[in-house]
Structure formats: C-alpha cells, structure tokens
Amino acid sequence: MTTQTTPETAPIERTLVLVKPDGVRRGLAGEVLRRVEAKGYTLVGVELVNAKEDLLARHYAEHVGKDFYQPLVDFMMSGPILAVVVEGQRVIEGFRSLAGATDGTLASPGTIRGDFARSWGSKVMQNIVHGSDSPESAAREIALWFPGL
Ligand code: IDP
C-alpha cells in the first residue's frame, strides 16, 4: 500500500520567488509579499538584486535559444528584482497557484498575474513574478540567487 501525502503531512519545501522589474517598478513588491504571507508561508530570504546577464543565463537555461530569450533577459535587467525564498508545506505548487498562468491575459482573476498583468505585444514577458516549478528547479534557483542560504 502506498503512503498518501496529504497537505498536513507534506514536507516543508522552499521555493524561489522573484518580483520581476515590472512588479518592482509598479510598486507591487509589497502586494506580492502580502499575498505570500497571508497564505501562511514564511519569508526566509529577501534581497533586492540588479541581476547580471550570467545569472539570468543560468536561471533561464531552459529557454536559451528561444525567440523570446534575449528580450526576456533584457527585461529582467531593466530594473531591480526582489528575490525571495519562501518556505512552507507544498509551497512550490502553492506559489505557482498564487501566481497564476504565465500569460497574464489568460491568468485567472484573483491570482497575482490575473490581477496585475496583461502580457501583450512587447510586454508579453512582463508577468510580475517568477516561482520555481519543481523541487529540482527550486534547489537550483535558490543556490543561484542565495548562494549562502
Ligand atoms: P513561468 O514563469 O510561468 O514558469 P516559463 O514557461 O518558465 O513560465 O517562462 C519563463 C518566463 O519567460 C515567463 O514568466 C515569461 O516572462 C517569459 N515567457 C514565456 N513564454 C514566453 C513567450 O512565448 N514570449 C515571451 N516571453 C515568454
């Protein structure tokens, strides 16, 4: 018989959340942190970062070579990013749920992207936040953005 993992018994995870330059520029960093804390997650690392190209190349390694890769990296260097490590049970999928779908136009109302992003034309990659998509990505990304944590 397999053991069922319920939300109560799920292990505590960490995820990397980024408030992207559009979110910081628009004064939404506090709103993102408020939603994370209101959900019951814990902030364990917070830093405002002017990301360099080599960090972004490693962060977005899976997108290297795609049409939107360079515009995405340029956008991510267009202003400060608030990098946050968030902890909690099932926080990786939990934050993805708070963030909403990648395309802000289609993201459900009530999600961060659904409430604040539209993603059209040259702004297509501007969707306020990033959240790690798996335990492996979270470990890799936290090591990149918070090498001491
Ligand atoms: P996610 O952020 O919802 O996990 P990913 O597919 O991992 O989405 O893409 C990373 C980021 O790259 C997105 O958040 C968005 O900013 C940007 N992006 C993804 N797909 C496109 C695209 O088709 N055009 C432009 N930018 C894109």
Describe the structure.
- Homotetramer.
- This protein is α+β, with helices and mostly antiparallel strands and 149 residues long.
- The chain has a single domain (12-145), classed as Nucleoside diphosphate kinase-like domain (Alpha-Beta Plaits).
- 37% of the residues lie in helices and 19% in strands.
- It has helices at residues 21-25, 29-38, 53-59, 69-76, 91-99, 112-116, 135-145; strands spanning 12-19, 42-49, 81-89, 129-131.
Quick rundown:
It catalyses: a ribonucleoside 5'-diphosphate + ATP = a ribonucleoside 5'-triphosphate + ADP; a 2'-deoxyribonucleoside 5'-diphosphate + ATP = a 2'-deoxyribonucleoside 5'-triphosphate + ADP. The protein has 149 residues and is an alpha+beta fold. It has helices at residues 21-25, 29-38, 53-59, 69-76, 91-99, 112-116, 135-145, and strands spanning 12-19, 42-49, 81-89, 129-131.
The assembly state of the depicted protein chains is: single chain
Are there runs of 5+ residues with pLDDT below 50, and where?
none
Question: How many helices in DSSP terms?
Answer: 7
CATH C-level category: Alpha Beta
Distance between the termini: 37 Å
Number of separate strands: 4
CATH superfamily: Nucleoside diphosphate kinase-like domain
* Helix-strand string: EHHEHHEHHEH
Number of domains: 1
CATH-assigned fold name? Alpha-Beta Plaits
Order of strands, main sheet, comes to 2-3-1-4
Overall pLDDT: 94
Rg over CA atoms: 15 Å
Helix vs. strand class: alpha+beta
**Helical percentage:** 25-40%
Molecules bound to protein: inosine-5'-diphosphate
Shape: globular
Q: Main sheet?
A: 4 strands, antiparallel
Cofactor: Mg(2+)
Protein name: Nucleoside diphosphate kinase
Binding site for ATP: 20, 68, 96, 102, 113, 127
Main location: cytoplasm
